[in-house]
Design goal:
single chain, alpha+beta, Lipocalin, TolA/TonB C-terminal domain, Serine Threonine Protein Phosphatase 5, Tetratricopeptide repeat, 3 domains, eight-stranded antiparallel β-barrel, six-stranded mixed β-sheet
């Protein structure tokens, strides 16, 4: 008995070690990446087709800010705002396949992992004909901290507050970080029912100090006195959920912005239908028909950045650069960076 037990124990140990090695090999086979490398925030640095051709201007992703954040053990966030993580979702990695899951656990997107390293994440979004489609999208992400180092500080975003302290205005370079997912979504004013059947747009600003303390809330654009009162009460619930902004690793004061938008159902449903019709025509490059539908949709929802962007491309394609530039300026006023390069390129 004793003569056979030792070899069997060694054989079992050998099997376990081989199994662990196989699992690790499968996990690392698509770029020799270490598990720690993935768990951080990534900002989209470049996007192209897999055949290296440039995306056309009619693809809003070309100029969009996109941030992916992976947290242990399987949490995934996607955001289009520097200071927000975005809504919490899930993810799973099998071989070279990255599956993004809804909060309920359903797969909503699948991408191929090309490379993961300490400072680079490369993914492929399958095209119409799958991963081999030359028009599949190639995403190149860089670490958030590396991207922030390349962004220049806008001197116009710096001012002194009443106490004489330096304060920075929120930008893609300087921003406080909300500890939750999406701050504006988390603000459930009146338990989310107060604005049912109503339209409205609130704009507010507040200060996040270098000590993380939140104060100086100001209502810049009001919906109503009753709503504003509920908004302030709800806002105060999250005052401890902020991390201060930093520059070169040092905390600084920053003035942040917040907006809440509502659209009543009798306007929301027609706006959605007009947008869907416009999208179909836009993808077919029937820009005159798409423009007509976008005008109807934006008359009901004038702050729809995606709609404004697509309408601007319709104007550009039809040769009306004056109105295209006007839409790009509106997008910039709404706080999005998606039109910045188009303004620089076409509207000098």
């Amino acid at each position: 008995m004793s003569n056979n037990s030792f070899p069997r124990s060694k054989a079992f140990l050998f099997f376990v070690l081989c199994f662990i090695t196989i699992v690790q090999s499968n996990f690392n086979a698509y770029g020799q990446f270490k598990e720690n490398d993935l768990f951080q925030s990534w900002i989209l640095n470049e996007i192209s087709h897999t055949d290296q051709s440039e995306l056309p201007d009619d693809n809003i992703l070309k100029y969009s800010f996109v941030k992916y954040t992976f947290e242990r053990p399987t949490s995934f966030y996607q955001s289009q705002t520097p200071g927000n993580l975005g809504k919490k979702m899930g993810f799973e990695v099998k071989g070279n396949k990255l599956s993004i899951k809804s909060p309920e656990g359903f797969v909503v997107n699948t991408l191929k992992i090309i490379r993961v390293s300490e400072n680079e994440l490369i993914l492929v979004q399958p095209g119409v004909y799958g991963l081999e489609d030359p028009k599949a999208l190639l995403y190149r992400f860089s670490r958030e901290q590396d991207v922030l180092k390349t962004i220049l500080l806008d001197e116009n975003s710096v001012y002194k507050n009443q106490t004489g302290d330096t304060v920075y205005k929120q930008s893609s370079k300087v921003f406080a970080v909300y500890k939750g997912g999406d701050f504006e979504d988390d603000l459930r004013v009146g338990d989310g029912d107060f604005m049912t059947g109503k339209s409205g747009h609130l704009v507010a600003s507040f200060l996040v100090g270098k000590n993380g303390k939140v104060d100086s809330l100001k209502i810049i654009k009001s919906i109503s006195p009753a709503y504003d009162k509920l908004f302030i009460k709800e806002f105060n619930r999250f005052k401890k959920d902020w991390k201060p902004a930093t520059i070169d690793g040092k905390p600084v004061n920053v003035e942040m912005n917040c907006e809440k938008r509502y659209l009543k159902s009798e306007d929301a449903l027609p706006a959605l239908m007009y947008s869907m019709n416009a999208g179909d025509l836009f993808r077919a490059q029937e820009y005159a028909g798409a423009l007509e539908q976008y005008n109807l949709a934006l008359a009901l929802r004038p702050d729809d950045i995606d709609g404004l962007y697509c309408r601007s491309i319709c104007y550009k394609s039809l040769g009306n650069m004056e109105k295209a530039c006007a839409d790009w300026k509106t997008i910039a006023r709404l706080g999005s960076q998606v039109s910045k390069k188009l303004l620089e390129k076409y509207c000098k």
